[in-house]
Amino acid sequence: MILADVFKSMAAAKLPITVLNIAKKYSVAERLTYILSNGKSSRSSVTYWEFSYFIQNQRCRMIFMAVDEHIMNLDFKMPFRDDWSRCKPIELFEKDIEKIEVKGKLNIINNPKQEAEQCQCLIRWLDCDREGKVSPPIALFSLLSDREIKKAAKNLKKFNTSLSDAASMQREMDLRAGASFTRFQTLEVGNKFIFPSVDKDDHVLIYGSCLFPALGFVVERSKETRESWMVGCKYNVGNHMISFEVPQTMLKFDATYEDAFPVYTSCLTVSGTARAITLERTETNERAPDPAPEHN
């Protein structure tokens, strides 16, 4: 039964509609509750918030909870999960995998199960990613702003199982590629790298399909960065160090050390006495950054 049919039948029977809302993080569930309730929600327990809200022109009792990110992870079946000697790294692309509990997380689903018994509808709140394997209505958002969240509540989407399958496949690919290359490079060249603060048996050269592209951007940016030098002056008066600031446009060199050093030495050889014209003292206060702009 689709969401509209549920609301229609409940309204016809003059029955209250209770909606269980699930977010992936506690902080996100708290923010969603604040926005939709206009800051007027109540804490029915430590685990969830409660307030009234209109969905598809029907007044609903909204219950908001969080499931704390991933409860289950993918990993290889024993003995290939922990024993690197049982197979070659490349063979991990064909070994069986299974879902295993993230330690201490499985009991998190007990609270949603209990609340679901009194609810007629389930809505999942997703930040535009492709995760999950169930098919309730979903509210998609890309920004935790009033307009974005209320728009998501008004335009609930049908769950796309194809996107869910794609997300599951991506997680499997990340596991197989990450584990295979991590074991390969650790076993082949791991002894070439010495980390004094790490025990020899714990030396692991990790490969991540998501991390490596980001590392590539960092390396490219590092190559593009030019040296920058500035000539400045500091004077020690008693126990106080005074810094004389010079406008960057006057004595800043986007060049090599060899270009900046002659200017520095010329400053040392100039004879005469410097005279302070003015002394200013200013106070600065750091303020919180501006929020991200809302998307249309």
What does this structure look like?
The protein is of the alpha/beta class and 296 residues long. The protein has 3 domains: 3-70 and 105-159, Rossmann fold (3-Layer(aba) Sandwich); 165-224, no CATH class; 229-269, no CATH class. Helices cover 33% and strands 20% of the residues. The chain contains 8 helices and 12 strands. It has helices at 3-12, 26-36, 110-116, 146-154, 161-189, 211-224, 248-251, 257-269; strands spanning 17-23, 42-43, 49-55, 58-66, 72-76, 97-101, 121-126, 138-140, 229-230, 233-237, 240-244, 252-253. A hairpin with a 2-residue loop joins strand 10 and strand 11. The mean pLDDT is 76.
SS element count, helices: 8
Q: What is the strand content?
A: 15-25%
CATH first level of the largest domain: which class?
Answer: Alpha Beta
Uncertain residue ranges: none
The separation of the N and C termini measures 32 Å
Question: Which structural class fits the helix and strand makeup?
Answer: alpha/beta
Q: Judging from the principal axes of the Cα atoms, what is the shape?
A: flat
Number of domains: 3
Q: Give the spatial strand order of the biggest sheet.
A: 2-3-4-1-7-8
Q: How many β-strand runs?
A: 12
Q: What's the CATH architecture name of the largest domain?
A: 3-Layer(aba) Sandwich
CATH topology of the largest domain: Rossmann fold
How is the main sheet built? 6 strands, mixed
Task: Assign a percent range to the helix content.
Answer: 25-40%
User: Would you list the SSEs in sequence order as H and E?
Assistant: HEHEEEEEHEEHHHEEEHEH
Mean of all residue-level pLDDT scores:
76
**What's the alpha carbon Rg, rounded to whole Å?**
30 Å
